[in-house]
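WARN retry 2 of 3 for item q-0093 after timeout on previous attempt; input resubmitted unchanged.
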Amino acid sequence: MTPPTPPTPSAPATVAGRALSDWSREGRFGTWYALGPADADEPPLGVLRIHRALLTPSGAQERLTSAVRSVAKLRLPGVPATVDLVREAGDVWLIVARPPVRTVADLLATGAPGLDGGSAASVLNETAQTLLALHAAGLAHGSLTPDRVVLAPDGTALLTEAALATALAASDASPQDADVTAWASLARTLGTAWAAPGTPAAELLARCSATAGSDGLAAARTTLTSGRTALPRDFLRRAALRTAAAAASAELAEPATESAAPAEPTEPAPLDVAPDARDTVLGKRHRTAPATPLTPTLDGGEEADEIVLRFGPGVPRSEEEALRALWEAPAPAPAPVRRRRRRAGRLVAAGALAVVAVVLWLLLRPTPGPAVTAVRVTAPPQRLTCGGTADVTGVVTTDGHAGPFKYRWLRSDGQRSEVLTRTARGGEHEVAVHLRWTVRGPGRFQGTAHLQVLRPGTSPLEAEAAFTYACAG
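OK item q-0093 returned
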């Protein structure tokens, strides 16, 4: 049982360079807030302010760091993507890709139009496959309740606070067994609340709950998926869940304005860990822009091809910075031989520098981009299998003029790319950009990739495509 916590000090104005909104939600391990976007067209992030009392026991901070990293490395589609774990203003903050605005607990308390047995089955199927993936990795959620099941924009169910209980709450019970018991309880609750009594859907959900208690979570999920004929035909569309998720955006208050005076920075109390961890565990120190990519920094032992988001081709910033550095670097002085040769050498060097300056100016000068007239996205039609990678292709139609344009990818699991640049050649009316999306773990998943082509002074052009994934485990 979590010990009582003392009154929480007032929250700072910003965290990791982003403004805290007025919206908040109390959780088991702290208080959730929304972090204002860095750009107007970006969604807010979610941030959990961990109760200080939970971090005072010996080793708690190290266990928290290990748990967050372990979950983040799995990159599960059913867990909000981890952005960072930072120490700021004397508190530890867990930053994730979305705030837990609309939860299943909210829907149970206030209701929502159209929720039925199919809605319950969708939530149960997605939470089960996430729990099974955590268990397969030797982890557990540890504190599954309806208020820790949050809806993504496409209506899928995500689990917040995964593995925090194993790090911060002492318990003699097996956390994986606790997950199974909690899922069985969730199945009973949703079956009673959303499925009409006496219908095949209600009977299926009751049977799943009983199966979880007797035969385990994997058997319960098999019972659920094999009984899909008892559910409404269109339940996979998640129409009611999508509507409920869309309504949640209005609950977020406007973040503090930029003119508001920022809180005076306070020196955080030192942690019993390495000095860098007092600022940030998973990302860069004192970020003032959105973390990119929205996945934690990989350990040195991980393979480079394990990165889930890969983009290209484009204009690498490193090349542009190298050219600028070359331009700014002073040319080495020629070795003196004779005074006359030295003067001639200076003239030659000055001429060479002038030529280099002209070439670099031509390379680096800003050029107007092409006019983008349309965009479309295609995803692999065949179903992905265990550990498969979807090569999602976006085709940008232009007026044929040469020059750069900017774009980014947004994924339905909450991850997004940074703003990328692609240079179109003259006469090229269609330019292809790619997103490689790798999915791992047992279960079924539908991923939606959304492409935004940014246009100065007007709204972006957008398109999306979806693919399916199935893995028996």
